Amino acid sequence: MDIILHKTINAFNRRDFSEAVRQSTEGLAFARGRDEAFWMGLLDACEGYEHLAGKRMLKAEAKLIASMQKLRNFGFRHNDFEVTAALAGIRLAVEEIRAVKQENKKVFDVSILPQLRLAAKADDH
């Protein structure tokens, strides 16, 4: 499962959202219990950003909001995934989508796209 999470994060951070969706779908297929809700939230985020890249703002907003609703139940981290950082980036994207929809901005600022990351692990030495 760690390998799938790493592949999902790497694809997302390369902005290959289609691959991130594929990887997170695979993660969800193997998830059980609480991990299932985590993977559903991560999949929603990946799908949301895929819609955003395709300029489908309404679908992107819906998926990103669904992602936030699922991921916020995991606190700061889940399986070394930095949930708080991901949520901050997702929230900023939703705010940006709303600003574009309300015509306060002309285009979505892609420079605000977040980087997903894992928590740093301490050495056992």
SSE order, one letter for each helix or strand: HHHHEEH
Shape: globular
Main β sheet profile? 2 strands, antiparallel
Q: Which regions contain 5 or more consecutive residues with pLDDT less than 50?
A: none
Strand elements, count = 2
Strand order of the largest sheet: 1-2
Mean pLDDT: 91
What is the helix tally? 5
Strand residue content = under 5%
| Helix and strand composition category | mainly alpha
Query: Alpha-carbon distance between the termini?
Result: 26 Å
Radius of gyration: 14 Å
Q: Summarize the amount of helix as a percent range.
A: 55-70%
Descriptive notes:
The model has no long low-confidence stretch (mean pLDDT 91). The longest helix has 20 residues, at 34-53. The protein starts with a helix and ends in a 24-residue tail after the last helix. Strands 1-2 form a two-stranded antiparallel ribbon. With 125 residues, it is mainly α. The chain contains 5 helices and 2 strands; from the N terminus they run ααααββα. A hairpin with a 2-residue loop joins β1 and β2 (81-82).
